[in-house]
SCO family protein (Fuscovulum blasticum DSM 2131), 207 residues
Amino acid sequence: MSKVFAGMAAVATVAALGAMAGYAFWPRPTDAFAQCRAGQSAADIGGPFTLVDKDGKTVTDTDVITAPTLVYFGYTFCPDVCPLDMSLNAEAADILEEEGQLVNLVFISVDPGRDTPKVVGDFASNIHPRAIGLTGSDEQVAAAAKAYRAYFKKQDGDPEFYLVDHSAFTYLVLPGLGFMDFFKHDTPAEQRAQGVRCFLEAAAQSN
């Protein structure tokens, strides 16, 4: 009997080793954009949102993300960080446009109390002709920020000239593919353009 069991064990061992060897060569899902990622990507960043544009019209993410888009959360009263990052995004968009690739910019206000549709719309258009400014109710803005894991908190103080603490990331979103990666505050415009370029080339090759 012991010889029988020993034989069965040997067969089981061989089968297990064969299965492990097969698994080692089993085709696995690959990330076509792995070589492009600079930030820490996460599948659950980004998603649907409903906000208000410069004309007071309710729009969704699919209405505004119709091309490769750089999305930024900030506010128009922001003293330095927001104008700098949006200017860098605009410069990156211009670099890519010279190469024949149109990239849109979306600025989502985290200060709906002061940033009316007109105010945020004027702010965005002054940054770049393809920049879209969005605002909304407190609930709409909070939901959009939560989808992108964007932090913001209104500071206590002067009710008119208060500041808003917020994260300062620019999110790259591609239509039909969603969130790709983010660029940190102060990332040079050429580096942003290079990042977008890499994702667009990888997307074209994967089709």
The chain has six helices and nine strands.
